[in-house]
């Protein structure tokens, strides 16, 4: 009986430690929490919570040189949330596109000519 009680307590402790804090159920801590075609993004507002968003498509707003970052985030009530490989404000553009002039646009070919781009 004692072995069962100790085992049950350890299991409950493990489950509690692996759960996200209340209010963070939809938060992503990295790209593995997102679906294919999405990335983990953190807004710039105070106490923003990272969440999954779609990769940029043609014409979408983007941030040039928006490299992913590892972060330790602090929230009220002493909550700390660690994230890795998260982007700021916007996901990067999807494959075959580049962020130019703050918009996702088709990548140029080897000769520097823009590929067909219809808006």
From TrEMBL:
Cross-referenced Gene3D superfamilies: Lipase, subunit A
Domain Prokineticin: 9-101
The protein, known as: Prokineticin domain-containing protein
Localization of this protein: Secreted
Signal peptide (UniProt feature, chain positions): 1-18
The species this protein was found in: Ixodes ricinus (Common tick)
Source taxon at top rank: Eukaryota
Keyword terms, alphabetized: Disulfide bond, Secreted, Signal
Predominant cellular place of this UniProt entry's protein: secreted
Pfam families in the record: Prokineticin
Recorded GO CC terms: extracellular region
